[in-house]
Amino acid sequence: MKASKFSDAQKAFILKQGNDGVAVAEICRRAGISQATYFNWKKKYDGLLQTEMRRLKQPRRRERQAEEAGGGSVARQRDAAGRDPPKAMKPGRKRKLVDEVRGEWQVSIRKACDALEFDRSNYHYKSRRSGQAALEQKIKEICHVRIRYGYRRVYVLLRREGWRHGQNKTRRVYRELGLQLRNKTPKRRVKAKLRDDRRPATRSNETWAMDFVHDQLATGHKLRVLAIVDTFSRFSPALAPRFTFRGSDVVAILERACKEVGFPATIRVDQGSEFVSRDLDLWAYQRGVTLDFSRPGEPTLQHLKHNPTAFGDFIAQTPTMFGAFCTFS
User: For residue 225, what are the β-bridge partners?
Assistant: First the structure.
């Protein structure tokens, strides 16, 4: 392990400046260290004197010396590498191991349990928990459509539909099904969830499609236009330009449009952050509107974005709003 270029006295002096009220950024600039290093030192050595800091390091030095001498670990360590012991297996996993040992070695349950240090009463235990197949199926259906929802938002949707179990059970089933999200996974690696083909609308206000169209001012500022289209009549209830959009902005635009032409039964949207927000979800629930999410990478207004003729017809139906937008841009 590489030795630190700062002595114990220097570290104590740097930490003392922080306790005296000097800004962390200024301390790090003077000492030439990162803020992460400063907070690591603060976590380990804050409030200690130089001698106490030296004593704190001595066990680590003895451990390294013993390993370099080939002696492995020092006294009172769990294993040769100095790590903590592995976590105990759950009873369900041990039951499977007992069955595997019995099948492989042709031994009795008692001998298999003794070899694996597993109590026979636990092996014979039968769960009294009621079946949860219906709950698992419902959670799968929700995550099939709303692929970016965590267990908390899934729990809210379940409560709306009359399920009366607790949030902890939702979390347990959600994790058992392997549906938990990895926040650091790039969006390009998110798996697209297969869904049934959509049926075409048969009347006005049955299905709306909503997505963003982008443009740019002569000054270089980028604009986003929220385009809403009735998929049956091709009428546009709203065409709203803004520099930035949030979920609450989308809700306000929808509320104004619905007051004029009525509420739709379904709105088709993609997985954008504005459309999966809690604001839009709550508005749709209170108004009885279904949000029909598309697969990632499949634009909701794809037929308009990639068909200039269709997009021209769409703009021609809203000359007043789009004319004002073009004058503004």
Answer: 213, 241
Q: What would the pLDDT profile of 292-327 be if each residue is shown by its tens digit? A: 887 655 554 544 444 444 445 545 544 444 444 443
pLDDT of residue 3: 59
> What is the residue type of 304?
L
pLDDT of residue 2: 54
- Contacts of 174-180 with C-beta under 8 Å, sequence gap 24+, read 174/139, 174/150, 175/151, 177/136, 177/139, 177/140, 179/139, 179/140, 179/143, 179/151, 180/150, 180/151
**Tokens at residue 46, please?**
């804050």
Residue whose C-alpha is closest to residue 318's, from 266, 241, 214:
241
Q: Which CATH architecture has domain 207-328?
A: 2-Layer Sandwich (3.30)
Instruction: Report how far residue 199's alpha carbon sits from residue 321's, in angstroms, rounded to the nearest whole number.
Output: 30
pLDDT in tens, 233-258: 999 999 999 988 988 999 999 999 99
So what's the pLDDT on residue 180?
A: 77
- Nearest-angstrom CA–CA distance, 176 and 143: 14
Residue 9 burial by Cβ neighbours in a 10 Å radius (0-12, 13-18, 19+): exposed
Torsion from C-alpha of 24, 29, 35, 41, nearest 10 degrees: -80
Phi/psi zone of residue 103: left (φ > 0), alpha (ψ -120 to 50 degrees), beta? alpha
Q: Tell which residue, 260, 259, 241, has the closest CA to residue 322.
A: 241
User: Which residues of the chain fall below pLDDT 50?
Assistant: 1, 72-76, 185-196, 300, 302-311, 314, 317-329
Identify the H or E element spanning 239. strand 238-242
